[in-house]
């Protein structure tokens, strides 16, 4: 068993003090990594079932034989790691706005960091996913206007509960149309949400994509003694 609590790194950033810590969680009986912004929890690997399902369900919706994939939001790397498990994936661009998170993966301070960064298919891109989705250049600055087979997004709590109000327009029809412009024909957009499936979200997706599904992903929550749920939307272009 590791020490009960250890602060692995902390940084002053323009948005506040960002820190990485690991602790032994008695309820789960395993080590947990957490990233905090000042006193608020930004993310943790307490529950990662739906993050993994985001990759699995998103890539399963594509019929392409080889896949160029974008993940929006690196976080603790579970979605990116699960995407790499699909042998069809030939390239993976992971866009992350916090340089510290990328660095912690590169230094192997996070459990999946060594594997993610050693995989020659992976590019960790320091940038704003929403600005890139909206731009003419797109997600690959080395190959401007490159189109992708799939974009897997887990940044906001949900399309209606965004981290920053500037993200809200992305989830409207016009924003989704611009994202679709970054995809190949038959391309897939998959989206993680902390909320139950929302009619407004599926309706906006259906304006742009030919096939839209919402999947409720449930998992055991030892803290409540019950089951918790997240939603994964998958949307496929014609
Ligand atoms: C919930 S976490 C992603 C968790 C990830 N799916 C996993 O499996 O661990 C969201 C991530 O998005 C990053 N982020 C926030 N705003 C962003 C933006 N505008 N562009 C890119 N990344 C952003 C956060 O720093 C954080 O690392």
List the helices and strands and how they pair.
Blueprint: E1 5-13, E2 16-25, E3 30-37, E4 40-44, H1 49-60, E5 67-72, H2 78-84, E6 89-96, H3 99-106, H4 113-118, E7 122-126, H5 129-133, E8 148-153, H6 173-180, E9 183-193, H7 199-208, E10 211-221, E11 226-236
Parallel strand pairs: 5-6, 5-8, 6-7, 8-9
Antiparallel strand pairs: 1-2, 2-3, 3-4, 9-11, 10-11
The protein binds S-adenosylmethionine.
S-adenosylmethionine binds at residues 43, 51, 72-79, 95-98, 101, 128-130, 154-155, 163.
Using DSSP, what is the number of strands?
Answer: 11
Instruction: Give the N-terminus to C-terminus distance in angstroms.
Output: 51 Å
Assign the CATH class of the largest domain.
Alpha Beta
> How helix-rich are the residues, as a percent range?
10-25%
| Ligands, ions, cofactors | S-adenosylmethionine
Poorly predicted regions are: none
Protein name: Spermidine synthase
Keywords: Polyamine biosynthesis
Organism: Actinopolyspora mortivallis
């Amino acid at each position: 068993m590791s020490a009960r609590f250890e602060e692995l790194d902390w940084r002053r950033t323009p948005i506040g003090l960002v820190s990485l810590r690991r602790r032994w969680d008695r309820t789960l009986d395993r080590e947990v990594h957490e990233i905090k912004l000042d006193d608020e929890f930004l993310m943790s690997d307490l529950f990662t079932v739906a993050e993994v399902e985001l990759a699995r369900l998103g890539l399963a919706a594509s019929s392409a034989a080889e896949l160029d994939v974008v993940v929006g939001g690196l976080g603790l790397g579970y979605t990116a790691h699960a995407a790499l498990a699909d042998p069809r994936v030939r390239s993976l661009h992971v866009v992350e706005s916090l340089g510290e998170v990328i660095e912690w993966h590169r230094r192997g301070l996070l459990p999946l960091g060594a594997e993610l960064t050693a995989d020659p298919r992976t590019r960790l891109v320091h940038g704003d996913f929403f600005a890139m989705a909206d731009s003419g250049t797109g997600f690959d600055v080395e190959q401007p206007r490159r189109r992708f087979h799939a974009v897997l997004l887990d940044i906001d709590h949900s399309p209606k509960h965004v981290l920053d109000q500037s993200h809200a327009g992305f989830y409207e029809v016009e924003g989704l149309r611009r994202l679709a412009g970054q995809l190949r024909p038959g391309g897939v957009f998959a989206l993680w949400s902390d909320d139950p499936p929302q009619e407004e979200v599926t309706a906006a997706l259906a304006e742009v994509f030919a096939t839209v599904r919402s999947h409720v992903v449930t998992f055991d929550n030892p803290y409540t003694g019950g089951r918790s749920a997240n939603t994964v939307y998958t949307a496929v272009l014609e």
